[in-house]
């Protein structure tokens, strides 16, 4: 008779203000780069999942956009998206960076987590003190106390407080243990080896967005949306069916539109004589070819969609 060990599976969600290290932590937990990382806030607009495969568990991580006080319709939509995701997960990891004092943004998030923690099917929340490597032991201890007090002051209870450093790998394995412990018993939800189930279109849009913002983030903060129009095999080039020929990869046409809010921003993206857009295309194409395992002809268009962040119709078209 074989001895069956308990197998757990389920979902965890990382929340926190922009730039607190959610994407970096997701990648550290999964052990491979899955989310798009950036030194600037709010680049992760879509829910990106990474999957931690273990013998005894499968932990599916949902990396959300920063939960923040909405100022625009887009902000509201993002918050609704975050709330919907949260009510469906088995455990939430609330990220609070060690190098920053707890502020109104954190309190706002805690207030949004409260109903989940106190609901009929309470969702456990683990407070994760990120970027622990940036402070000394004394300050870390003070921060841990402050994190504890945040819960007490709101009549909440973290199921654990775990300091980590995604950069140094400090306590990352411990955090995995804590998260896994909250998962219900169940079989693998995804096949082994699959790290992300994010639709290809979303990942392509993220790659283009990242490349387009490179070096011009200050001029184009949050005013760029990317829509993948189509991905089709290139016809009439003699390349049809070349995927079957060993050593030859298929050629795909990928059509992408970049939406900006103003004419002046269009100029920034395109650059003099189209030079910048060509660079964006080259950088993004490399990533897309890797992602799709195909040669790619990338067709980029830039359009002005005035105030797209506030327009419900535009938002719907862009997939929000
Ligand atoms: N020193 C240090 N820096 C970190 C650590 N984790 C993340 N960072 C840095 O913090 C910045 C933000 O990290 P991200 O992972 O992009 O943060 P995020 O919370 O996903 O950001 P948004 O997508 O804007 O919500 C980046 O510059 C990271 O390199 C860490 O453990 N230690």
From TrEMBL:
Region (G1) residue spans: 16-23
Region of interest (G4), ranges: 130-133
The organism encoding this protein is Isoptericola halotolerans
Q: Where does GTP bind?
A: 16-23, 63-67, 130-133
Q: What does this protein do?
A: An essential GTPase that binds both GDP and GTP, with rapid nucleotide exchange. Plays a role in 16S rRNA processing and 30S ribosomal subunit biogenesis and possibly also in cell cycle regulation and energy metabolism.
Which key words tag this protein in UniProt? Cell membrane, Cytoplasm, GTP-binding, Membrane, Nucleotide-binding, Ribosome biogenesis, RNA-binding, rRNA-binding
Top-rank taxon: Bacteria
ATP-binding among keywords: no
Q: Where in the cell is it found?
A: Cytoplasm; Cell membrane
Q: Which Gene3D superfamilies match?
A: 3.30.300.20, P-loop containing nucleotide triphosphate hydrolases (3.40.50.300)
Instruction: Report what the protein is called.
Output: GTPase Era
Q: Where in this protein does the record put region G5?
A: 164-166
Q: Subunit composition? A: Monomer.
Region (G2): which ranges? 42-46
| PANTHER family from the UniProt entry | GTPASE ERA (PTHR42698), GTPASE ERA, MITOCHONDRIAL (PTHR42698:SF1)
Domain Era-type G, by residue range, is 8-185
Q: How the protein sits in the membrane?
A: Peripheral membrane protein
Domain annotation KH type-2: ranges = 216-306
Q: Which family does it belong to?
A: Belongs to the TRAFAC class TrmE-Era-EngA-EngB-Septin-like GTPase superfamily. Era GTPase family.
* SUPFAM superfamilies, alphabetized: P-loop containing nucleoside triphosphate hydrolases, Prokaryotic type KH domain (KH-domain type II)
InterPro entries linked to this entry? G_ERA_dom (IPR030388), GTP-bd (IPR006073), GTPase_Era-like (IPR005662), KH_dom-like_a/b (IPR015946), KH_dom_type_2 (IPR004044), KH_sf_prok-type (IPR009019), P-loop_NTPase (IPR027417), Small_GTP-bd (IPR005225)
- Region (G3) residue spans: 63-66
